[in-house]
Amino acid sequence: MSRIMLVSLFVATLVASAYGSSYYPLITNEIHLIRPKSGSGGTPVNGLSCLSWRFGVETNNIINWKTVPLSCEDYIGHYMLGSQYRKDSKTINKEAFFHASSLNISKNGNDAWVFDIDETTLSNLPYYAENGFGAVPYNATKFNEWVFTGNAPALPESLKLYNKLVNLGVKIVFITGRTEDQRDVTEANLKAVGYNTWDRLVLKHGKTAVEYKSAQRKKVEEDGYRIIGNSGDQWSDLLGTNIGLRTFKLPDPMYYIVAKVKGSDFPVISNQIHLLRPQSGSGGGHVKGVSCLSWRYGVETNSIINWKTIPVACEDYVGHYMLGDQYRKDSKAINDEAFLYVKTLNLSKNAANDVVWVFDIDETTLSNLPYYAQHGFGVERFNATSFNEWVFTGKALALPESLKLYKKLVRLKVKIVFLTGRTEDQRTVTETNLRSVGYNSWDKLLLKGKNFVGKPAAEYKSAQRKILEKEGYKIIGNMGDQWSDLLGTNIGLRTFKLPDPMYYIS
């Protein structure tokens, strides 16, 4: 099928769905902030997209969940026991080694890599396979009995990374949520499966996971180490302070450890953008054996960064994803989660004038997919002239699920702020385009001025959000398709990452 035919099909279905078409099945029960209603309370839910649920979990959009939805037990089981889990782990660990090998490793032994243990270096899959792959509520007594058997196998791809780092002269630091009474069995288990040496093994005492791990990483740095990398399966392993040069999120849809700092449900993510260009196909060359689904996982979790184009081998995969129903399902899961979060804030229809929601525009509220479908879905190098010509046509489409969220927020009297990387000369066409597809009102439309030209997106957007807060606005939510929309400072009470595997903004 030609790209033109694919674009025509996409436009028809997207426009139809934006105005009430039933082309895409609705998810009847959405995922709730505190305890998901999508089966995790013990009731199967028809229409749940388990792949979308996993996307929401892995990108930290869906938080504070207690169990895997019952309707997703089989899906998670097949994922964890199948080849895709191994491929995803391989992609992230491979990217981690590319990062490490790009650095000048200190010869005096001051460079360190921080590893979590459970589901990062050791696998508890034998235990979880006997306990519903996370669909059964966590039982601390039973899990600790499993830990004390010392039978956890190594995660093969993490063990490979560990061995490569040791060969480079990098010091290994394990920081785990396991407790001091489990030190002996943990040391024996690590050595039994191939982790033979480390600089320190830090076990937990008190505090939340983020506070504890931040404090321990701070001690490592105060002892003179440079943390060049930080690997974990939980966002609570990677958030907070002293996170190192880069973080790497390994897949784990079986359980969630609360990531909470200083009373905030979603702490500030430190700006961890590194000037490394991934070698896993992101330069545009064909890479033998690349798993496109794993590549997208790495991109969406910000483990693969600063890429210029999608791998050539993944053009068809990304095209089918963007034009198919999974992209819509993923977007729906995140937007539904965003609104369920808003409902927990108990905003009245007479909400205070200072309550605001920040939206990015491109691939967040407006879709440029007709343009990208004509340019290889991101496999071609970005051409600013060509893209700006498209912008000035004013024909970008509404992203249906984002438009629904926008309308719900407006009805709750939440102020809308659009914060975009588009420039001031595009103001008129952007305003017209937004209104033409249903975004009829907003409080502010902030475009990139000359004083921010050439500066990183995260710096520009942080500065604009800081101004909003100085003006008295309370940012209750912040939504974007790029991590640069969500990183930095003044990010708001919660952030929501929409899917976009077509391009990367540093």
TrEMBL record:
InterPro entries: Acid_phosphat_B-like, Acid_phosphatase_pln, HAD-like_sf, HAD_sf. Residues 1-20 form the signal peptide. Keywords: Signal. GO terms for molecular function: acid phosphatase activity. This is Acid phosphatase. The lineage of its organism: Eukaryota, Viridiplantae, Streptophyta, Embryophyta, Tracheophyta.
